[in-house]
């Protein structure tokens, strides 16, 4: 595991409060997915089979699942459940090596569309099936739905709480919304609480990309329990705040420990922070030292990995102060994380039917992106690609109507908060 850290500026002026961005970039070890002996996994597919899924949507989902199970190891566990207002267990949790792939695929092909949509019933059945996994085996529930919950639990916050509780038992939840009518509020909150992913397959064919990306990410994991511990000097009013998604934040005497989750093989990911520096006098303090310690567990070896880097922020006398040269990479990473909140605001406006407000918010985001894009030549290849992707995506958002904008912006916000790329572009 490799780590580098940077501050947005090398120095600030005495006597003035300042907000300074910070970037910690972690690169995960490379693993050979063909020869590695990875830990056993359990995957539970929960499929909405309500009447609206009939025809092409359900056929695409079934065909994709049948292809995906071929990527899993014989030691992995798999289950397939479908639901409408009732639940059917087509493949009870079983180790792949103990059942023929042909038998599993035949059971999946027998799923037929009918009835209404009780997401809570299907999800509860999926969690119950995942809970049958052997102790210490991580499970992933992947729920696919094209509709709104019209039976059972319909409150998004209830799904979030249920999903969060499941993570305490090593069960994560990912969701894929299919078509134009699914409930993005429920599916997003479910994935948020379940520490998984959310994907918007507005065009039915996109469900193939979403499912494959979910499984590929699961199989290529290199690091788990990624944490960054920040050490700050004891200065009254000196604070630091992480941007984007965090699984947990624990305050310490000298800073905080931020837990994020997993990283894939050879993945390089940026983690951004904003540090609030109070008014300081050079007679009392000439510099601030900030330390960043990364910790993670190597998925293949279970080894605990660590990396440490330090940065210094100088306090300059007013008479000697000149505007510092900004590190454009730090500025770009900070801006990209802030876009996650902006996209969520646009999604909420579109969901409520206010398309003009949503577009106004997006235009504000485009202005922020263009300001960073003026310095593309100063960005690392990773951040240059990210800014160009953000620019392209925001331009596309301006062409969508309310329903599609709400769903795609919700998914995009989810990705931006986790510094993930759009799998459609890979």
A few lines on this structure:
The chain has 426 residues and is α/β, with parallel strands linked by helices. It is built from ten helices and 16 strands.
Please provide a written account of the structure.
- The chain is α/β, with parallel strands linked by helices.
- It is built from ten helices and 16 strands.
- α4 links the parallel β7 (138-145) and β8 (171-178).
- α1 packs parallel to α6 and α7 runs parallel beside α9 (381-397).
- The longest helix is centred in the C-terminal third of the chain and has 24 residues, at 328-351.
- The radius of gyration is 23 Å and the shape is globular.
- The two termini are 24 Å apart.
- The mean pLDDT is 91.
Number of helices: 10
Terminal-residue CA separation: 24 Å
Strand order across the biggest sheet?
2-16-15-10-13-12
Poorly predicted spans:
none
The secondary-structure class comes to alpha/beta
Helicity level, as a percent range?
25-40%
The main pleated sheet reads as: 6 strands, mixed
Round the mean pLDDT to the nearest integer and report it: 91
Q: What share of residues are in beta strands? A: 25-35%
The total strand number stands at 16
How would you describe the shape? globular
Rg of Cα set = 23 Å
Secondary-structure element pattern, one letter each: EEEEHEEHHEHEHEHEEEEEEEHHHH
Describe the secondary structure blueprint for this structure.
Elements: E1 2-7, E2 11-13, E3 18-27, E4 41-48, H1 56-68, E5 77-83, E6 87-95, H2 101-109, H3 119-130, E7 138-145, H4 156-167, E8 171-178, H5 184-193, E9 198-201, H6 206-219, E10 221-231, E11 239-242, E12 248-252, E13 255-264, E14 268-277, E15 287-298, E16 304-316, H7 328-351, H8 355-373, H9 381-397, H10 402-417
Parallel strand pairs: 2-16, 4-5, 4-7, 7-8, 8-9
Antiparallel strand pairs: 1-3, 3-14, 5-6, 10-13, 10-15, 11-14, 12-13, 15-16
Helix pairs in contact: 1-2, 1-6, 4-5, 7-8, 7-9, 7-10, 8-9
């Amino acid at each position: 595991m490799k780590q580098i850290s940077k501050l947005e500026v090398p120095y600030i002026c005495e006597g003035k409060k300042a907000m300074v961005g910070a970037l910690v970039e972690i690169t995960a070890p490379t693993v050979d997915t063909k020869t590695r002996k990875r830990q056993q996994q359990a995957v539970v597919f929960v499929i909405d089979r309500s009447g609206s899924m009939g025809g092409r949507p359900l056929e695409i989902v079934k065909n994709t699942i049948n292809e995906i199970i071929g990527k899993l190891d014989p030691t992995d566990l798999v289950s397939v459940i479908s639901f409408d207002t009732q639940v059917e267990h087509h493949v009870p949790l079983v180790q792949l090596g103990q059942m023929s792939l042909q038998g599993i695929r035949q059971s999946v092909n027998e799923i037929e569309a009918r009835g209404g949509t009780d997401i809570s019933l299907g999800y509860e059945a999926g969690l119950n099936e995942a809970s049958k996994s052997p102790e210490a085996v991580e499970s992933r529930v992947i729920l696919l739905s094209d509709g709104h919950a019209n039976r059972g639990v319909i409150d998004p916050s209830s799904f979030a709480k249920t999903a969060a509780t499941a993570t305490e038992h090593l069960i994560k939840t990912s969701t894929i919304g299919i078509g134009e009518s699914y409930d993005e509020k429920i599916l997003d909150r479910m994935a948020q609480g379940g520490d998984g992913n959310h994907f918007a397959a507005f065009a039915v064919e996109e469900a193939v990309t979403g499912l494959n990306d979910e499984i590929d990410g699961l199989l290529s994991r290199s690091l788990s329990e990624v944490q960054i511990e920040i050490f700050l000097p004891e200065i009254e009013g000196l604070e630091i705040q992480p941007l984007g998604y965090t699984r947990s934040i624990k305050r310490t005497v000298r800073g905080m420990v931020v837990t994020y989750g997993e990283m894939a093989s050879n993945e390089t990911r940026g983690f951004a922070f904003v540090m609030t520096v109070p008014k300081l006098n050079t007679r009392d303090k000439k510099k601030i030292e900030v330390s960043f310690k990364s910790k993670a567990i190597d998925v293949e070896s279970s080894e605990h990995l660590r990396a440490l880097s330090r940065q210094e922020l100088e306090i300059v006398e007013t008479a000697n102060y000149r505007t510092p040269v900004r590190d454009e990479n730090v500025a770009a990473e900070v801006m990209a994380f802030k876009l996650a909140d902006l996209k969520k605001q646009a999604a909420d406006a579109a969901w409520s039917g206010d398309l003009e407000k949503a577009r106004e918010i997006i235009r504000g985001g485009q202005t922020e992106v263009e300001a960073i894009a003026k310095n593309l030549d100063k960005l690392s290849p990773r951040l240059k690609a990210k800014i160009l992707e953000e620019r392209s995506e925001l331009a596309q958002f301006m062409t969508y109507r309310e329903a599609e904008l709400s769903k795609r912006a919700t998914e995009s916000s989810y990705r931006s908060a986790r510094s993930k790329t759009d799998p459609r572009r890979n």
